[in-house]
Amino acid sequence: MKAIKTSPCNRRNNKWICGAIPALLIHCSIGTVYCWSIFSQEIADYIGFSKAATEWAFSFAIFFLGMSAAFLGNIVERDIHKSSLISAVTFAIGMAGTGLFIYYGGLHKGSVVALVGIYVSYGFIMGIGLGTGYLSPVKTLMLWFSKQKGLATGLAVAGFGAAKAIASPIMQALLNNLGEGGIYKMFYILAAVYFFMMMAGHLLLKKPSDWHEPQKTEKKQSIIAVIKTRPVRNYVGIWLMFYINITCGLALLSQEKAIVKCIGFASAAALVSTFSAVFNAAGRLFFSGIGDRTKDRNTIYKLIFILSIAFNALVLVTGGIGNGAENMLSAFLVLILMMVVNAGYGGGFSNVAPLLSDHYGMGSISALHGITLSAWAFAGLSGNQLATWIVNHFGELVEIDGHMVNPTGYQIVLYVTAVLYLVALLLSVVLVRPVSSGQKDN
């Protein structure tokens, strides 16, 4: 009798081979976008522009991540193989293109062509790869781990959060050992490595064979119609609290290095950054795992906001940032705040797709998740810029351990984020209503 060949996705361990492993391969690649601070100064110096000018490349990358997820969500919904291939190709081209324009900028210092080329490559082209790559594995994982949707998405986006901790020392080693022009050579090398990883993820990624995806001939509800199956204010609440959580996270994280110097830990800045990345990844797993055990997943967001408000208040009451260099307890509280915000920032990402599926079902989750990620796009522009504007307009620079810092400015950032977290908490209570257990299983 002729043996019947079966694909890896029909084996007992299929959920790992066709779900978890490809998700980690893709997310551990695209998550390196958060390594920008490792090499941003080197890029600025090499092409002859200020660091502030080059920083827009990162802001554009996050913006186009969210917008490509919003506009290409339907492609992900219909064909994860097409979307994951688009992601691998555009991410690698964007990274290689960034290296090419850095090389050009090194030959022509101060060239606007080089700067705009980096914006287009790192911001727009890589942004498309980021958005489609972020979405592609999420629905697939929730289908494989139908009873643990939160943990499944947490596993995927934990790779996105952990990518910084894994890649940062590798990137630093490349910069230190590639000699003259190491900055653009690093991008060429990483483009090849991440293309290989993402293509492996693309080839492995598959949905369960028993999942029926609506065909083109079948009538499918529009996203607006899906949103209207619940009170519209419900979705507005989810989008706004997701946006606020990201805005607050980015506002604080964008000042992380300066705050660490302010509390007298300049020599340990790299270690603090690594711990931040670890807490970011751990928060994605921890909060999503708890979410699977709650009757209402919105409870996780309430917990994140309450913890963030509480530790913001502790640091503000004790004057932690201003006193940190002289008071170890104050410095310790500031470090805890950073870890709590990082964990909550990651937890917000890992819980949003399962929260949406609880409220609106799995039928259009990729497209709905993609539209919701537009909150990330706008937060990518507002979070960093809000904190920078506050620090530039309030307080004054003082010298602490040889570093010029603005303790008053950083404290005011905390006042603003504390208020925003409070607004997000109120939104989660007033606008986002619980779902019935029957609806949750749809």
Q: Would you kindly provide a brief summary of this structure?
A:
Helices cover 77% and strands 1% of the residues.
Could you explain the architecture of this structure?
This protein is an all-alpha fold. It has two domains: 13-208, MFS general substrate transporter like domains (Growth Hormone, Chain: A, Up-down Bundle); 223-433, Growth Hormone, Chain: A, CATH 1.20.1250.20. It is built from 18 helices and two strands. The protein has helices spanning 14-30, 36-47, 51-78, 80-107, 112-144, 149-177, 182-204, 223-227, 232-253, 256-262, 269-291, 298-318, 320-323, 328-360, 365-372, 374-393, 407-430, 437-440; strands at residues 398-400, 403-405. It has a two-stranded antiparallel sheet with strand order 1-2. The longest helix is centred in the N-terminal third of the chain and has 33 residues, at 112-144. The protein starts with 13 loop residues before the first helix and ends with a helix.
- CATH homologous superfamily of the largest domain - what is it? MFS general substrate transporter like domains
Q: Helix/strand/pairing class, anyone?
A: mainly alpha
Number of helices: 18
Radius of gyration: 22 Å
**What is the CATH fold-level name of the largest domain?**
Growth Hormone, Chain: A
Determine the mean pLDDT: 85
Indicate the proportion of strand residues: under 5%
Profile the largest sheet: 2 strands, antiparallel
Low-confidence runs (pLDDT<50, min 5 residues)?
Answer: 1-6
CATH class term of the largest domain: Mainly Alpha
What number of domains? 2
| Outline type | globular
Order of helices and strands: HHHHHHHHHHHHHHHHEEHH
Helix content: over 70%
Number of strands: 2
Q: Gap between N and C termini, in Å?
A: 41 Å
The neighbouring-strand order within the major sheet is 1-2
Shape-level CATH architecture of the largest domain: Up-down Bundle
